[in-house]
Amino acid sequence: AGRGAVVVTHAHNAHVWSPSAGMPLPPEAYRELFDEMAPRLFAESVLLNEIVAGGPLDLARHHAPDALDADPALTIVAARRADVCRAYPLDTPAAARGEFRVNPLYDIERDGGRTRLRLRFPSPDYEEEYGAARLYLHDEVPVDAGTLASLPANRLPAGLADLARRRIILDLPKQWW
Q: What integer best gives the mean pLDDT of the chain?
């Protein structure tokens, strides 16, 4: 027992307003929740920038308290094993755990032989909270209709590897759709 880890993503920060904050806590309170497991807190925006840049995702370092206090959302990693908090390479897997599909934030628009994916947030509040996704999700993405027709897929079609790296194609749970 005690060999696992707890990872909490997008935990709202009580120090920063959010349109859908729920019951946020300040960083120090999140740390106290997992005090027995040597928790590390990370500013979500810093981790997002690492992911967008292609990695690695560095969980070995500590974020400064002022960076944590200023970020709207935090990621918490708590484990009794020190080796959990290290740098992780970010690879795009060729095989899906679920199935590869177009990110549900995109509408598929077909116009003759051309196909475009158009970014559409489900609501203004959602866009306000998750607008940082625009760092890697473009408003409009032209795609090859033939390659796109191969979705859903268990293996990533070669022509979609770049879109998967950019999170335009996602590995989603089967029957999630």
A: 92
